[in-house]
Give the backbone structure.
Amino acid sequence: MEIYDRLLQFTLFQGMSHADLMQVAGHTKFGFSKLAAGKRLVKDGTPCTHLYFVTNGTLRAETTSDDHSCRVSETIAAPFIVQPERLFGIDQRYSSTFKAETPCNLISIDKQEVMLLLETQLVFRLNMLNMLTTETQRLRHHAWRTAPRNLRERTIRFFFSRCLYPAGPKTFYVLMNQLAAELNDSRLDVSHVLNDLQADGLLTLHRGRIEIPMLEKLLM
């Protein structure tokens, strides 16, 4: 019953009957582990061979740009599945590094077990398909969103477009010159916008670092 309750936290298992969940719990090889605060779960660039389900605790995800000029650190609370879209496709490697911010409990399933669940459990297969297609549709829509009307909106769009989860605390490690180049504007104008956002209590500026306590408040 404990594994039954834990699995129901996650979209992939929701909608399954009690009998199906009992079958999954009895026939699937689950891994159970605890991750101490500060310990790394996965590193960006390493092969994605498992699905990791964080049942409680908080992770810190760090994502770095291809040219290493910008890095984003964000806090993500359980329940959370670590990059399920990376298990298949052309690039089967994690794109972010995940560490435990607080002690975490995890359930893991290796890829072969996931493929078996996809073959034998219709609801699991549909949930996985819905999860991946929803993400594809969301990303496809980005190009058709209303264009930012000014530098402030372009700056906010920059922050949102580089986060895994569109809410909660974020830390951006980026130099002002690099941010200005990304926004195709002058360093002075970008500095003015950031200082205005700081005056509104939406972020805090440091040397080479921007702290955003609640990302979603940038849209209010």
Summary: The two ends are 42 Å apart (CA to CA).
